[in-house]
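Below is how a single chain appears once it has passed through the pipeline. First comes the sequence as given, then the structure the pipeline wrote out for it. We keep one example in the README because the format questions we get most often are answered faster by looking than by reading.
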Amino acid sequence: MKRLLLIVLACMSLSVWADNKKIALLEPRIGDGSTEVTGIEKAMIRGELRKAIVNHTGYEAFTRSDIDQMMKEQDFQRTGNVSDGDIHRLGEMSGADYICVATITKSDSEFYIEAFLINIETGAISNPASQYGELINGKLGNMLPVCQALAQELLGTLSPMVTTISTPAITPTVTPTITPTVTPATTTPATTTYQSYDVYRTFGDGFVVCGNQKTNYEDNALALGTLTDAIKGWEQVRTGAITETGDGLVIYGSNGYQFQGCGSCTGIKDKVGNYNNERKRIADVAINKYGHYVIIYEKNGYGSNGLPSKFLDALSERNEDGDKILSVSLDDGDNWAYVTEKYFRASNQGDHDFMKEATDKFGMIKSVCITMKGIVVCCAKGIYFKGVPKGVVDRILDMCNDGYYPQVVKFTDSGTCLITDGDKHYQYYM
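Resulting structure:
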């Protein structure tokens, strides 16, 4: 498959109390070797990126046709070169603090995005980021979630209203009891900014919990009381899938299960019921708010609905080569990830690279969970995460403090979570 290359210029580190920084987005360039890129596709990319950037507190993003014309006159679309004098002229014309430029190399099936910003005052370029994805029926139908993920990576903790504190060993405040608590997810006013803190904790036998947590986040998920009632009755839970919209599924023993909602997950209840009747062990399950899902059973069998074709192809390959599938994840943008005994893979390059970092730090991956804003990777000797709500991290630490190390962490960006060692020890907030 060919690839779509997009170079977007994004943010430098800014003062916590600074005024909004203005970002001017130019019309995207077309990269060498690209297939045809239409005017509406250029407008779509720039428009979705603009929406994604302005959703980050402290930034404004806009487009200007006169700036586009100047860049064409300078032959920037072909050469990609711009002088310091032109940069300052662009700043005077637009009132921008940064100029955001895009280069697009498109194919009929995939795209790839790289990003960075030019500082108008200094001409400096910094903070590259990247995302890629698949076209939908040959169209850029999934650009919004891709641009949201890109803006999150570029601007996330660099927002002027955000502070990142990096300390070798910060011990977050944790709940004193490790007894699983059933607290319905509550609805609170939307939070547009958050603080993030680096967490690094080492336990007695060298197990490490390491990563970046959000201390403030929107706790607006629907409660999953049916699932928590089931877990209390079983006194165990092995894995499951949860959403912010009130749909969920938990698994215990070999194939015991309990649903909540999932009316939009076409066929999932029949499939799980059949696996239960046939005594097929359910290894893992993932669902998202659109009702798309995948169930892994036995060694590498799977049932699904609504999955991207690339994900289906990957699962089919694992089935054919006999590799045991350990974990699957699917976020609300239909990005996916999986772990087997031999491989791991994610549709988002940033997630894939993060999983690689996790294996380098803490050994073989046991499970992965991705959301639109975060990722948790459970490994043999540690847990590695970023962009995860503080309440989720607290419950991971609660369980580790009691001497039981999670092999499965399922969570949402609203802070609901299910954490288990794959047997009888667990924490949850649903």
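The chain has two domains: 5-158, 196-429.

See the next section for the split statistics.
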